[in-house]
Amino acid sequence: MGNGEVIRTLRETILKQTPAVHSAPKILKRTRATKQQSHLDKKDRHENIKNVFTFTNHPFDFASYQTVVLLDDVVTTGA
């Protein structure tokens, strides 16, 4: 199973089990390049991705939601 398939399966499972959650692919866009995360500690990873994403002009009612979850298809080693 590839990373993209894992993310699709995770998204579908969350949507089935949590009716209040809605899927809106491609609502976020990257605003700048970042350093590779694998060699950074927790604090530096947080700083590295701070303000990296912004909302697109997607026709989705963002004002109705307080939380947005970004599912990425990158698998880490857990290190």
Tell me what the structure shows.
It contains 2 helices and 2 strands. It starts with a helix and ends in a 24-residue tail after the last strand. With 79 residues, the protein is of the alpha+beta class. Strands 1-2 form a two-stranded antiparallel sheet.
For the termini, the CA-CA separation is 22 Å
| Averaged pLDDT | 80
Structural class: alpha+beta
What is the 3D form?
globular
Number of strands: 2
Separate helix tally: 2
Rg calc: 14 Å
Going across the biggest sheet, name each strand in turn.
1-2
Helix content: 25-40%
Low-pLDDT sequence parts: none
Strand content: 5-15%
How would you characterize the largest beta sheet?
2 strands, antiparallel
Order of helices and strands: HEHE
Features:
single chain, 79 residues, alpha+beta, two-stranded antiparallel sheet, 29% helix, 8% strand, globular
SSE blueprint:
Layout: H1 3-17, E1 28-30, H2 42-49, E2 53-55
Antiparallel strand pairs: 1-2
Précis, in short:
It contains two helices and two strands; from the N terminus they run αβαβ. The longest helix is centred in the N-terminal third of the chain and has 15 residues, at 3-17.
